[in-house]
Amino acid sequence: PKTPKPRQNNLKILVVKNKNTLLIYNYIMHKLQDNGIKPAGNFPVLLKNFYSESEEVKNRSQKDVDAYRAEHFIKVTGENIPRPVQSFEESSLPKYLVDQLKTHFNKPSVIQSQSWPVALQGRDFIGVAQTGSGKTLSFIMPAIVHVMAQDMIKKGDGPIVLILSPTRELAVQIQDQAIKFAQVCQLSSLAVYGGAPKYGQK
Questions:
Q1: Distance of alpha carbon 6 from alpha carbon 202, whole angstroms
Q2: Considering only 20-24, 92-96, 183-187, which range has the smallest mean pLDDT?
Q3: Which of 5, 103, 113, 165 can pair with 108 through a Cys bridge, CB separation 3.0 to 4.6 Å?
Q4: What does the DSSP 8-state code read for residue 4?
Q5: What's the rounded Cα separation, in Å, for the pair 71 and 65?
């Protein structure tokens, strides 16, 4: 008699673009159940979309949006790319972060105006801009929003946000910006690199 083949696991994870995280979570849970797999513990649903397009952004014509991008040399590729924002109030960032930004800047930088709506939706993107153009805050501010939406971490948990830097100097610069804007939320951050004291890394 032929030896029966071992049952193959037909579990497939569907990646749904631009849909609510809950849809993906429910899909995975149903597939696990269909294949007789019982997840260990209860997995929390992580919300990723915190962007709500303001009325000002909605009411701008596509001609105005294209003109803004052309004026500031913004080139975008991808699907369902949100329109750029032109003020802190349009950014969908919470008021406590907007107030903090206003103490340092008058309006979003060019890369911030286009990247904030994308990052606040929880989407992946690659942003390229010159040095000193505000790239750090283009990912720091959405990161703070995502951190504040998660449950409090327990002892032994890892960091919620991980930022990789190619150089020690850049890591220190990012840390300076993170401290400046995260402290208003009572969040802690740390730059880890060779030669840094161990005490702060505990």
A1: 47
A2: 20-24
A3: 113
A4: P
A5: 10
Contacts for 195-201 with beta carbons within 8 Å, 24 or more apart? 195/168
**Residue 34: φ, ψ to 5°:** -60, -30
Q: pLDDT of 155-177, one tens digit each?
A: 878 788 899 999 989 999 999 99
The residue type found at 145 is V
Residue 117 CA to residue 56 CA, distance in Å, equals: 14
Q: Which two tokens stand for residue 16?
A: 């749904």
Contact between residue 189 and residue 180 where contact means Cβ atoms under 8 Å apart: no
CA distance 117 to 125: 11
Query: CB-based burial of residue 36 (10 Å sphere; 0-12 exposed, 13-18 middle, 19+ buried)?
Result: exposed
Taking the CA atoms of residue 160, residue 166, residue 170 and residue 176 in that order, the dihedral angle to the nearest 10 degrees is 10
CA 174 to chain centre: 16
The DSSP secondary structure of 130-159, one letter per residue, reads -TTSSHHHHHHHHHHHHHHTSPPPPTT---
The answer to whether 138 and 119 have CB atoms below 8 angstroms apart is yes
Picking from 98, 61, 102, 68, the residue whose alpha carbon sits closest to that of residue 85 is 68
State both tokens at 61: 């014509």
Quick one: pLDDT band at residue 55, thresholds 50, 70, 90? Answer: very high
Tell me the whole-structure pTM to 2 decimals.
Answer: 0.73
